[in-house]
Design a protein that fits this description.
Two copies of one chain form a homodimer.
Chain A (H helix, E strand, L loop, with lengths): L1 E3 L2 H13 L4 E6 L5 H13 L2 E6 L19 H10 L4 E3 L3 H4 L6 E5 L2 H4 L2 H4 L3 H16 L3 E5 L3 H13 L5 E5 L19 H6 L1 H15 L5 H14 L3 E10 L14 E9 L2 E9 L3
Parallel strand pairs in A: 1-4, 2-3, 2-6, 3-4, 6-7
Antiparallel strand pairs in A: 8-9, 9-10
Catalytic activity (chains A, B): (R)-pantoate + beta-alanine + ATP = (R)-pantothenate + AMP + diphosphate + H(+)
Organism (chains A, B): Dialister hominis
Family (chains A, B): Belongs to the pantothenate synthetase family.
Chain lengths: 284, 284
């Protein structure tokens, strides 16, 4: 696996691949890779001639009081995992390479899809995500890009960007990977104390209960939300940021009685750590 | 020449061209084609296997009190000219095709380059231009895109977008085409009364005088600006919007004494019609 830090070197690699008619799969990450990322790299490996993984803690998607500085960075471990999963090239640029000017060119998806859920408390987050992904899509000229459904809203924002700007990339959305006890894999799980980690299990547990109710026929939106809210609130260490439900895909508002598929998503703090999790309620 | 209105048809055409390894040159226009556009299409013809011209009066680059509705539309004439200049395909989409959602994904170049000159009075203009050009670049997968230096600021904004987002397109900037009497070709010239048209000649005349002074060694910024301002102000029908000067390329602020190349640009109203013109002062 090639490890590359410079844009020029990446572009040379991409140009060679393109000339040979090879398909390129992309997995963009902020590093601190875990089994969730690994599943994306493996999926890309299956469907493309070439797999590129990026490791870049993107400053523009962090708010001023968020964990940009603290975000775990461990490129050596990441390289080993990416290589083991079959990546051909790992691209780990410096922030100055990705943002050459202080005055930015932004790609911004506006409206409902970026205003709900995480958009309520992280107003600049998705602008940063869309901008950096647009850059990586252009840099790698990827045919397919792989995202985990743990960041469900992110996948829908990027889907909107790709459609609206007619980008020539197919987004492949992959299921959430969980620990054996149900906790969704996240690079931020390392922040959790032992106690917090145990308390955080309420997320996957309550979402599973809502799914169960849905599968048994419950279609009332508030009833489903209440199952999750009540169970999380019973956990003393939890501090709910949101428990919300939207149409999936697209995240449009739902009627009181759900008809198609829905996303039930939560963001909850345990101590200083904000975790997100979700479940897709599939009508069939 | 193929005339095409649907995105699906355009994408099929582009895919076929790409499969055959053909290079694609793009000329994006708002129609009402004149010799300026023709020179761009001819330049694209020389440098590419395939030439695509777009005709689209882009609603998002017009302010609420601007001439979106009045903007001249004449697709038949445009088609004939584009074909005569060697275009292979003319793409004329409906606004609903280019903007499928009411909630937009914007591409926005921020900072100095979009705040000066036309950015002062047209605050949303360049966001609309950048967004629609990003869409056309992605739709056509063009290798080169051609823009006239009459819209000098637009060329620099797009250059910034392409660099910042690492777009895989080369911008080719072409000289201003003028009427025999010096008036810069513009689709908006049709708005001018005979008297206004005559009065508007002061733009090219005054810019030529500034260039003359520059070539004779004048390097004082204010002195050069004053030549142009005074001469335009002497014309009773003129109403100056701006007369400004910046570094070229890039449009950074200039010191009082100019060292490299500079853009001297003007926007002036004659009656209801706002015209722009400029000259590049080249140090060598």
């Amino acid at each position: 696996m090639i490890i590359c830090h410079e844009i020029g070197e990446l572009k040379d690699f991409v140009r060679r691949c393109k000339k040979e008619g090879k398909s390129i799969g992309l997995v963009t990450t902020m590093g601190a890779l875990h089994e969730g990322h690994a599943s994306l790299i493996r999926a890309a490996r299956k469907e493309n001639d070439i797999v590129i993984t990026t490791v870049f803690v993107n400053p523009t998607q962090f708010g001023p009081n968020e964990d940009y500085d603290a975000y775990p960075r461990r490129l050596e471990k990441d390289s080993a995992l990416a290589e083991a999963c079959g990546a051909d090239l790992l691209f780990a640029p410096a922030p100055s390479a990705m943002y050459p000017h202080e005055e930015m060119t932004w790609v911004e998806v506006t409206g409902h899809v970026t205003m709900i859920l995480c958009g309520r408390t992280r107003p600049i987050h998705f602008r940063g995500v869309a901008t950096v992904c647009a850059k990586f899509f252009n840099l790698t000229e990827c045919d397919r890009a792989y995202y985990g459904l743990k960041d469900a809203q992110q996948t829908q924002v990027l889907q909107r960007m790709v459609k609206d700007l007619f980008m020539n990339v197919e987004l492949r959305l992959m299921p959430i990977v969980r620990e054996e006890d149900g906790l969704a894999k996240s690079s931020r799980n390392v922040y959790l104390s032992q106690e917090e980690r145990k308390a955080a299990l309420v997320l996957s547990r309550s979402l599973a209960h809502a799914k169960e109710a849905f599968q048994k026929g419950e279609r009332n939106k508030d009833a489903l939300l209440t199952i999750v809210k009540n169970e999380i609130e019973e956990e003393p260490m939890s501090d709910i940021n949101y428990v919300e439900m939207y149409e999936m895909p697209g995240l449009a508002e739902l009627p009181e009685t759900i008809e198609g598929n829905a996303l039930l998503a939560v963001a909850v703090r345990f101590g200083k750590t904000r975790l997100i999790d979700n479940v897709i309620l599939e009508a069939e």
